[in-house]
Amino acid sequence: MALISLKSLGVTMSAPLFSNLDLTIGTGDRLGIVAANGRGKSTLLYLLSTLDTDYEGTIEMNQTTVTGLSQNALSKFRNENIGFVFQFHFLLPEFSALQNVMMPARKLAKYSPEEIESQAMEKLKQMEMDSFAQKPSGKLSGGQQQRVAIARALVNNPMIIMADEPTGNLDSGNSEIVFDIFRNLAKKGNTIITVTHDKDFAKRADRIVEIVDGKITS
Fold first, then answer.
1. Pick from 130, 126, 128, 145: which is nearest to 184 by CA?
2. Does the model's pTM come out above 0.70?
3. What H or E segment, with its residue span, contains residue 186?
4. Per-residue confidence of the chain (218 residues) as pLDDT tens digits?
5. Reading across the β-sheet that carries 56-61, which strands appear in turn?
6. How many CB atoms lie within 10 A of CB 15?
7. Are 5 and 67 in contact (CB under 8 A)?
8. What DSSP assignment string belongs to 102-163?
């Protein structure tokens, strides 16, 4: 089943970056996006995540045409459907791991404070980080911080996880942990879209999308 569909996507900066690009991503897919520097892989991720709206063509996600939606509508759509994991975890160091994980759910304001805390603890437990829930995130190791960041991405139970170089600052052991987490999430029905320079990480995806001369090879 198609969860995400890009139709005739075009992006022009100083020169055309994409032209008539088509891509379909299914539920539970693990997609790796690779390209040489400056060839559009991060731009493609920003388009897929609805953070960048400067394009031609149409993007449909989870049975919603997001093209043309207002910024407020896009923000609501992202909060409900997409979780983000970045190379830099962007945790607030003085806040506890639990407080960091709760933040997207507080912004969504769909559940009570008690339900939000319970859900955040559940996601920390899923990442095997529940014993560090009350510890300031600035006191955690790099690998632990990234697991907290993944828990934060999951707290609103999104269908889609967008990851931009999620293992870029991790050693091989912690990179393996992140890969295993993503693999298990995909088994449970999450769609994982990852931009990465890590060729070994990309090769383990179900599909690799490579951007060459503004076109996709898959």
1. 126
2. yes
3. helix 172-187
4. 567 888 877 776 555 567 777 888 889 888 888 876 766 777 888 888 898 888 888 999 988 999 999 999 999 899 889 999 887 778 999 999 999 999 999 988 888 999 999 999 999 998 899 999 999 999 999 889 989 999 999 999 899 999 888 877 778 888 888 888 888 889 888 899 988 777 777 777 888 888 777 677 76
5. 16-26, 2-12, 56-61, 64-65
6. 6
7. no
8. HHHHHHHT-S-HHHHHHHHHHHHHHTT-GGGTTSBGGGS-HHHHHHHHHHHHHTT--SEEEE
- Tell me, which fold does domain 2-217 have in CATH? Rossmann fold (3.40.50)
Dist CA 166 CA 162 (whole Å) = 9
* Ranges of each domain in the chain: 2-217
Tokens of 166: 């999620």
Distance CA(97)–CA(14), nearest Å, equals 42
